[in-house]
Design brief:
about 150 residues; mainly alpha; Butyryl-CoA Dehydrogenase, subunit A, domain 3; two-stranded antiparallel ribbon; 5 helices
């Protein structure tokens, strides 16, 4: 049972990273194509560059962590706390960055056809699926403080 939950939590982390990767791809292209102020691409603005770089860093870190845990899963060594932590962090981070990606893309970012809003809605499921992030935080915290018999 625990192994199934662990696998599901890794899957949810992967879904979150896929949404983040989609947003990164859309923003990189949009920031190079969208012209503003004297026909210059919006990608030249530092804030746009910051968000795109933050998305890239989060994606690379998340994938590295996820692949490491997938190896542990395959070897039967994955702890439920590790699976919970990667699921919590990846769904949280993607949920923070998707609205920023939508801001870069402006009004088109809100259109279903553009895709960002659909991924943002899907990330809600990633935060509550396979155990709500709030509940999983308690599970993960217990392993960090084994001397406490009861954590709320």
């Amino acid at each position: 049972m625990v192994n199934t939950l662990n696998g599901g939590r890794l899957f949810i982390a992967a879904l979150s990273l896929a949404s983040l990767g989609y947003a990164l791809d859309r923003c990189r292209i949009y920031a190079q194509e969208r012209l503003q102020f004297d026909d210059k691409p919006i990608g030249r603005f530092q804030r746009v560059q910051d968000v795109i770089l933050d998305m890239d860093i989060a994606l690379e870190q998340g994938l590295t962590w996820l692949f490491h845990l997938l190896e542990q899963y395959d070897q039967g060594r994955l702890t439920r706390e590790s699976a919970a932590k990667v699921k919590i962090e990846q769904s949280r981070r993607a949920s923070e960055l998707l609205p920023l990606a939508m801001e870069i893309c402006g009004g088109v970012g809100c259109l279903d056809e553009f895709g960002l809003i659909r991924h943002l809605r899907d990330l809600f499921v990633c935060r509550v699926g396979e155990g709500s992030n709030f509940v999983l935080k308690s599970l993960a915290a217990r392993a960090l403080m084994p001397g406490l018999t009861e954590l709320q």
